[in-house]
Structure formats: structure tokens, C-alpha cells
Amino acid sequence: SLTAGIVGLPNVGKSTLFNAITKAGAEMANYPFATIDPNVGMVEVPDSRLDRIQELIPAKKVVPTTFEFTDIAGIVKGASKGEGLGNQFLENIRQVDAIVHVVRAFDDDNITHVSGKIDPIDDIETINLELGLSDLAAVDKRLAKVERAAKGSDKEAKAELAVLQKIKPVLEAGGAVRTIAFDEDEMKIVKGLFLLTSKPVLYVANIAEDDMADPEDSKYFGVIKDYAAKEGAEAIAVAAEAEEEIAQLDDDEKQDFLEAEGVEEPGLNRLIRASYHLLGLQTFFTAGGKETRAWTFKTGTKAPQAAGIIHSDFERGFIRAEVMAFDDLDQYKTEAAVKEAGKLRVEGKDYVMEDGDIVEFRFNV
Ligand code: GDP
């Protein structure tokens, strides 16, 4: 399954955030935790559509979908040259599918900052420089091999050489591979290079609790957002320490806490949803009967493979999918009314699943 890695300088609040995520996850009734790696946390995807479906098509139980976060220890300057267990950290980042980059955006004289001052852009650039240098070393190594092979008639080597030559100057200028436009064939080659700066990134400003109600007031969040926008990336603000507290409360207490802070929902929920989208994940639902349930699929998944997420037999014996959009159920309120409105669709094996589809799969056993 896909996983989002939490990355950042030491002491910026990564563990606090990871604890908040796993504590929220630890309350999940449906998933066993004990067997999972301590650096991996499963989290439920908060989705109000599930409550609405349950209201309209009541089932015995409701099961949200989940995905993984991986906690990656702090990166320090020089990591790409092996400083502070650098290579190992970079290797851990290589294993994740998307990067959640945590940046310190709170003042607190009691919490030491590795470079002695709070400067979010400097912090972001320190990390991105290490990732870029590591990629540049990988690209150079690959170039040395491929250049030789490309001299002959090796078409694949020629294609890879062209991609490497496109990437190198961007990295040398301090840019990230994810900012380069590639066509489909080039993209396949890029994927095979497993470069750190090719992974999608979400910047998370760890703001002070005082700024929770109005993150735009934080003197640091704005600059982080601007930096992200220049890269075409998203930035969100959470107050990690407060989120860790919230995650431990029961539902009533949680509501009181949020009201006292003047916020509508935990920032953690926004972080979870944004990370889910960053990974290219979407949700379909099965509804009614024993359980109403949300399922995770990768953008672009076709109906039979989506059926296979529920059970491999469903994929093998796939006949068709009966699909209604969540928005249509929300509007027409019953499946019968959706059908009457002509919005209940019968889809075949080439149907590409959409976020919010409510599906019944028909299959041979
Ligand atoms: P990591 O090294 O990035 O994992 O950082 P930690 O999560 O261990 O946090 C470092 C220190 O900063 C701890 O003492 C945390 O309690 C504190 N900390 C984390 N988030 C916040 C925050 O939002 N506000 C304040 N004031 N302190 C925080």
C-alpha cells in the first residue's frame, strides 16, 4: 500500500505530529495495530459522506478507509554526504510514495532550533538541498553507465540518457524533479530512477496553538504557502502539540476543545485528507446490509480492479458494476429515486472509477 513519509529538520514537531496521527488511529476499532512497524501509523480517512450514506441507507456498521504514514527521523545539513545517519534517512525517504514536509512555524524559546533561529524558508531549503544533492549523485552515477550504453544502438539507454540530461541541470540549479514536465514515456523512466525530489510533497507548517483559529495570522505560514505555491505544491497549517492533545480526547471533549479554540474540525483531518490526495488516492463506497464501507483506490483504477480491492474473487468473476455518484444519492435520497432519475449506471470492465462512486459489483463465483 502507498505511504506518506513525514520529513523535516530535527525538533520541528514531526514526532508530535506522528503521535497525533497514531493516537487518532489507535482509536480505530477495526484495524489491528500491534503487528505494524513502530514507524508506521495507520490512520482513518475522515469522510462526512459516510455518515450521510449511513443516514440514507442504514447498515449494521460503518467502516472508514485507512492509509499509512511513515515517520522518518530528522534530516540534518550534510545528510546527502552521510551526516547524522544521513544515508539511512534518505533511503527511508526513497521507500515512501509522497513527502509530508513539516516546518517549524512556532516560537518557543524552550525548544531549541537546530540552526538557532526560526526561518521556515531556510529550513525548507536545507532539507530540499540535501534531497536534491542525493538525487544529483544518483543521476551522475546513472549517467556514467548510460552514456556508454547509449553510444551503441541501445534505444532504451538513449531514452534514459535524454531524461537524465533533462533532469541534471534542474537539480544543479537547486530545483526539484517534480517541477519538470515529462511525457508518459519519460515518466516511466523517471519512476524507475526513484529520485527523492520526484515525489509529490505537501508542506505542513507547525504553527503555534494561538494561531490555530486563524492560521493566516501566523507570521510564518504565509511565507511557507508562497514557497509551496512557487513549486506548485500545497501547504497547510496544523498546531502539532494541540492536535496530539485533541487526538486523545473522546468525541464530546473533542467538540468542547475545538469550540474553545474556535475551529471547526481538527487540523489533523485536513492533513490526513491532503496527504491522501497527494498520494493520488480516492474513495469509493459500498453501502447497506452488513456494512457501509469506504474503500481506497488509486486514481485511474478500473472497475474490475476496484472490485478486487474488496475480494480477489470479485475481480476474477467480474461481470459489471452498478454505480451511483454520492452526490446523486445525497440529492435523491434513495437508490430507487436515483434509478428513477436515470442516474443509476451499469458500468463494464473498462469503467474508470470516480471518487465518491457508490458501487455494487456483480460477479460470477
Ligand atoms: P521532531 O524532532 O521533529 O520529531 O520534534 P518533536 O515532535 O520531538 O518536537 C520537538 C519539541 O517541540 C518537543 O518538545 C515538542 O513538545 C515541541 N513542539 C512540537 N510541536 C509544537 C508546537 O506546535 N508548539 C510548541 N510550543 N512546541 C511544540
UniProtKB/TrEMBL annotation:
Cofactor: Mg(2+)
Residues annotated to bind ATP: 11-16
Gene3D superfamilies membership: 3.10.20.30, P-loop containing nucleotide triphosphate hydrolases, TGS-like domain
Keyword Membrane listed: no
Record-level Gene Ontology MF annotations: ATP binding; ATP hydrolysis activity; GTP binding; metal ion binding; ribosomal large subunit binding
Keyword Magnesium part of the UniProt annotation: yes
UniProt-listed Pfam families: MMR_HSR1 (PF01926), YchF-GTPase_C (PF06071)
Recorded GO CC terms: cytoplasm
CDD domains: TGS_YchF_OLA1 (cd04867), YchF (cd01900)
Keywords in alphabetical order: ATP-binding, Magnesium, Metal-binding, Nucleotide-binding
Span of domain OBG-type G: 2-258
Positions of the TGS domain: 280-363
SUPFAM superfamilies recorded: P-loop containing nucleoside triphosphate hydrolases (SSF52540), TGS-like (SSF81271)
Function: ATPase that binds to both the 70S ribosome and the 50S ribosomal subunit in a nucleotide-independent manner.
The family this protein is said to belong to: Belongs to the TRAFAC class OBG-HflX-like GTPase superfamily. OBG GTPase family. YchF/OLA1 subfamily.
Protein's name in the database: Ribosome-binding ATPase YchF
Species in which this protein is naturally found: Levilactobacillus suantsaiihabitans
Gene that encodes it: ychF
